[in-house]
Amino acid sequence: MLSYDDNLRLKILAWFIHYPFYILWFIIKIFLNKKQNEWDNIQAPQFPRIIIITGASQGIGEGLVEYYLKNCSSCQIIIMISRSKEKLEIVKNRFNSDDQKKLMIYPCDVTDSDEMKRILLDIHRTYGQIDILFANAGLSYRQHALTNTFDKAVRDTFNININGVINTVMPLIEVKGVKQIALVSSQAAYAPFVSPIYGATKQCILSFGLDLRRLLAKDNIAVNIISPGPVLTPMLVGSYPRSVERGISIDKAVQIIFHGLRRNQAEIVFPAFTGVFMYTLSFLPLCIAEPVASYLMRGQ
Ligand SMILES: NC(=O)c1ccc[n+]([C@@H]2O[C@H](COP(=O)([O-])OP(=O)(O)OC[C@H]3O[C@@H](n4cnc5c(N)ncnc54)[C@H](OP(=O)(O)O)[C@@H]3O)[C@@H](O)[C@H]2O)c1
Question: Which SUPFAM superfamilies match (predicted)?
């Protein structure tokens, strides 16, 4: 019996039938559909006062704390969430020199839905409406699998990268207590076969984010998806050498995020080179894209 998956000729045929239409649709969208939707016209907070960042104890989250502290004069309160109280305190002590701005720490595991809800509603009651909520905490399956069983590595990756994001955003959505939500996905979402388990979780966040953006427009809440390629954070340690070579600095990454959020950009994608590459891979038939990806990831 002919199996779609095993048959190279069918895959190539499918590619010739489907993808020209996708590409055409993409071009039409760029030229005709720009800023036409109500969710694209929502005004993102230009002078954010209160910001919540999960995964703030290192990497991109820590970079965001520093950037908003130093470059956003309106910003008064930054609330940092991650599991390790010690790491959060180190970040707090490093930056908290200005009396006008407060850094608050809330140690919590984003997978603990009850505790996240309690903390987020408590913050909302105490400080009022949140200007920007970053659902940034995430886990690299590849790194986690080095020291854990297959079962644990898979479950933790799905739990933190998907349920953790849901636990972060839903409590404040329910009380309409937030003006802008930034979900951190990844360019791995475009071509999940490059990093299948991690990529699947980030594809889910991309999809969830795009739907939230549409659904929450009626409440005037802006939702943005952040899709980084390699950024030189602790997460990249032990990653593919080519990713590390192409990695951009945390400073550069958070600067791009800051400006993209102010413009209410639907998806903030950087660095451009890896973004275009991953996007192109996603348009190729798997029988070509997979060997290209494994060639590039060779030696691992
Ligand atoms: N770096 C990259 O190249 C890259 C590329 C694409 C996408 N991303 C995405 O960007 C986000 C940040 O990545 P990063 O590179 O900054 O990673 P990182 O350096 O490994 O930092 C991850 C942060 O998340 C926190 N975290 C992990 N699990 C948590 C949990 N269960 N509950 C609460 N906090 C948790 C960690 O703190 P604790 O350990 O204290 O909990 C840490 O602060 C992630 O979503 C990642 O997938 C990164």
Answer: NAD(P)-binding Rossmann-fold domains
